[in-house]
Amino acid sequence: MAFTTLPEHDDLGAVVPPKARLALYGHEAAFAELIRARSEKRLHHAWLLQGPRGIGKATAAFAFARLLLNARTADGEGATASFFSEDPVIRQIATDAHPGLIHVTRAAQERGSGFRTQITVEEVRRLARFFHATGASDSYRIAIVDPADDMNRNAANALLKMLEEPPDRALFLIVNHTPGRLLPTIRSRCRALRFDPLDPLTLDRTLAAIAPTLSEQERQAMVSASEGSVRRALVMEEHGGIEIVDALEPLLDADRPDWNGIAALADQLTLKGREASFDLAIDSILSTIAKASEAALDAGDGARAARFAALWQSERARIREAVAYNLDRKQVLLTLYNAYHAAAADRFESA
User: Fold this and answer.
1) Deepest of 2, 41, 127, 320, by most Cβ within 10 A of its Cβ?
2) Within a 13 Å sphere around the CA of 341, how many CA atoms are in the beta-carbon half?
3) Could you tell me if 132 and 25 lie in one domain?
4) For every residue of 21-55, which 3-state class applies, written as one string?
5) Cα(62)–Cα(245) distance, integer angstroms
6) Averaged pLDDT for residues 170-192
7) Which residue range is the domain that position 166 belongs to?
8) What's the whole-number mean pLDDT along residues 88-101?
9) What pTM, to 2 d.p., does this model score?
């Protein structure tokens, strides 16, 4: 049964959003920890669902919320958790109508189209009104913050105050892509739950369930290039991600920067309407930097690993600032490309 859901900032075309998905695939260990905590009556009031973007953390949060709000479960082949679409609890959650659940995310712009770039303090204050309106009861009152990375400082401080003095029977499920983006005081008041990228089989099964029009060949291409992220796979399919990765690979592997090649690619990726393709290119280079750090660590070269890790961190911060101030995207890409080659130059010193 299909649900009519309100638009949200991270919607992917016709793909069903996490709040309306009827099954969670993968993440068995993380989900089992939540179930175990509930059954042993030691369910902490705030959980930090941490892991890379797009791997299913929000889907897991909504799945657990359904269980706590007594939605009927179903037998789903290969699924960690599965639910009956006809259950009224499922419909209420999918349409933002359940009195026991609130979903805090980036709000729509008050004027014009589109969404805000941050979760503001006004959105977090909705939580106070939600808990006051629902009052204390025997049922859980659940707040899903998705993702906490998008909160501005005022919003983060407002959430921290609630975590310090949580209402009775309140449960906070806080989605977090990058731990460094959160206030340490928020992290210290939550129980961290790690989510890892999906393995190829589980990712293929997930894509088959939420994007049934994809062919097996299309899914396999997406699985091999998406690093365990459902969202990355879907964005790559919609915005030519496979072609972008193929174009970047020789540019990154070259023994010196190919300025003509990267400039030509940047010209294409910064055309109007190709924002998602540009983001994929940035993510691909950042992923290459992260893999270089991991490879150096595996080889016992701690200094090189630290250099690439520091580069990843600094470039992430620089790119966030560039986005916030709407700086020239072509220059952002060229600077990142140059920084990678400068860090990787010692690959060829002995050649």
Assistant:
1) 127
2) 19
3) yes
4) CCEECCCHHHHHHHHHHHHCCCCCCEEEEECCCCC
5) 32
6) 93
7) 18-194
8) 95
9) 0.83
